Amino acid sequence: MSALDWPLDADGYPHREAARVLLFDDAGRVLLAKGHDEDQPDRYWWFTIGGGIEDGEHPRSAAVREVFEETGLQLESHDLIGPVLYRTAEFDFLAVTARQDEWFFIAHAPSTALSRDGWTKLERSVIDTQRWWDIDEAAATIDGELYPARILEYARRWREGWDGQMICLTDREP
């Protein structure tokens, strides 16, 4: 196991599968979280809700669980659209280089108060805030990193519905 407590892949990198959800509220805003790295506290980024898929868990089930744990919003499996995007990513976090394979879904939820009750100790230490963003406001305002980098572009396309085309991305740093 690594500092992230993820299994190591054949290349020796911490590696896991994850399920992520781009949540839209009734006004068409998207929910993004802002986090930082404990190892690099001045570095921060915005990202979608989601996290690791547990052993034997389906990505759709993991997405529903992660939304509840990270926001307190209760979705059902049939509330998810997709997967709409699949991404392989390599990134540095907690002083290690890690790899993550991510399944992205779309869902709609009310913009009610969000809960941190289901957050893990690590999430409590590295997630700074969650916010419902107007897509254009987010594009004009967010000055740090955003993952995936083009998620707001995709959000504009998906706000009114999904065209059935799954996007595949590889975000591997050299």
Overview of the molecule:
The chain has four helices and nine strands, in the order ββββαββαβαβαβ. It has helices at residues 59-71, 121-126, 135-141, 151-158; strands spanning 15-24, 30-37, 40-47, 49-52, 81-93, 96-108, 127-133, 145-147, 167-171. The strands form two sheets. A five-stranded mixed beta sheet has the order 4-1-6-5-9, covered by helices on one side. Strands 7-2-3-8 form a four-stranded mixed beta sheet. The longest helix is centred in the middle third of the chain and has 13 residues, at 59-71. The mean pLDDT is 89. Keywords: Hydrolase, Magnesium. One of its GO terms (molecular function) is hydrolase activity. Its cofactor is Mg(2+).
List the helices and strands and how they pair.
Blueprint lengths: L14 E10 L5 E8 L2 E8 L1 E4 L6 H13 L9 E13 L2 E13 L12 H6 E7 L1 H7 L3 E3 L3 H8 L8 E5 L3
Parallel strand pairs: 1-6, 3-8, 5-9
Antiparallel strand pairs: 1-4, 2-3, 2-7, 5-6
Helix content: 10-25%
Structure class: alpha/beta
- Low-confidence spans: pLDDT under 50, at least 5 residues? none
Question: What's the N-to-C terminus distance?
Answer: 23 Å
Strand content: 35-45%
Q: Which sequence of strands runs across the widest sheet?
A: 4-1-6-5-9
Overview features:
NUDIX domain-containing protein, NUDIX_hydrolase_CS, alpha/beta, globular, hydrolase activity, 4 helices, NUDIX_hydrolase-like_dom_sf, five-stranded mixed sheet, 41% strand, four-stranded mixed sheet, 174 residues
